[in-house]
Amino acid sequence: MLQHPQIDPVAIAIGPLKIHWYGLTYLVGFLAGWWLGRLRTRKPWAPINEEQMGDLLFYLALGVIIGGRFGYVIFYNFDSFLADPLWLLRVWEGGMSFHGGLLGVMFAMWWYGRKVGTGFWRLADFVAPLVPVGLGAGRIGNFINGELWGKPTDVPWGMVFRQAPDALARHPSQLYQFALEGVVFFIILWWFSSKPRPKMAVAGLFLICYGVFRFMVEFVRQPDAQLGYLAFDWLTMGQVLSFPMILAGVVLMSIAYRRNAE
């Protein structure tokens, strides 16, 4: 049985100024996405040039933060918002929804695509392989905060989280998600997108992979206390939101390759 490391969620404190690890992990994700995006702009089929990558990152960052926060409020914790509306602004305390962030990023890509005259799907295929790095970094932030832990377990790597309401060893599900949504996800998408693919194919594979990985981890992740299981004593909100992603991804890839074959 392992103990969750006692990591102060505040990485740097200078007087009243406090910089949290959770915020730094997001910064790492954005910077890594910007660097990788600049590499991808050198491909002949890239929809934007190297100079435009900084502007695109700004739009995507707004989409992630605004969409992710509002998504968490709507999908997971609307009661907390009603009790304390200012809680919406305290992003450093955690509480971001990937599915909300995805909607925010989609809107940001549509908006930026219109601005520069680039089609939405070409931009989506370009951005998709950049996302797993940020997802992985965010899961490390969850682990440092000691949030989103897994169910009780007797596996040798089970971990006791001090924030949990008991002293039971639990699955370190944040690290599972880091491995799947960060490392494995990045390898798959980066490899798949290294060559020209039919329009919508990369975006479709993104939806399938994330949906499958998230659906799998939800079986060992403790559901949000305020929601619990939605049905069957195992179905979680994360699975409900991920299943349509898988279906949408299959549809996109089917359309992409059917059009390519015509």
TrEMBL record:
Renumbered to this chain, the signal peptide range is none
Q: Where are the transmembrane segments?
A: 19-36, 56-76, 96-113, 120-140, 175-193, 200-217, 237-257
Pathway linked to the protein: Protein modification; lipoprotein biosynthesis (diacylglyceryl transfer)
Q: Which InterPro entries match?
A: Lgt
Question: What PROSITE patterns does this protein's entry cite?
Answer: LGT (PS01311)
Q: Which UniProt keywords apply?
A: Cell membrane, Membrane, Transferase, Transmembrane, Transmembrane helix
Provide the E.C. number(s) assigned to this enzyme. 2.5.1.145
The Swiss-Prot or TrEMBL record annotates one GO molecular function as:
transferase activity
* Binding site residues for a 1,2-diacyl-sn-glycero-3-phospho-(1'-sn-glycerol): R139
Q: Which domain of life is it from?
A: Bacteria
Membrane topology note: Multi-pass membrane protein
Cell compartments where the protein resides: Cell membrane
Q: Which Pfam families match?
A: LGT (PF01790)
Function statement? Catalyzes the transfer of the diacylglyceryl group from phosphatidylglycerol to the sulfhydryl group of the N-terminal cysteine of a prolipoprotein, the first step in the formation of mature lipoproteins.
Classification via NCBIfam families? lgt
| UniProt record similarity statement | Belongs to the Lgt family.
Matching entries from HAMAP family are given as: Lgt (MF_01147)
- Its name, as the record gives it, is Phosphatidylglycerol--prolipoprotein diacylglyceryl transferase
- Can you name the source organism? Marinobacter salexigens
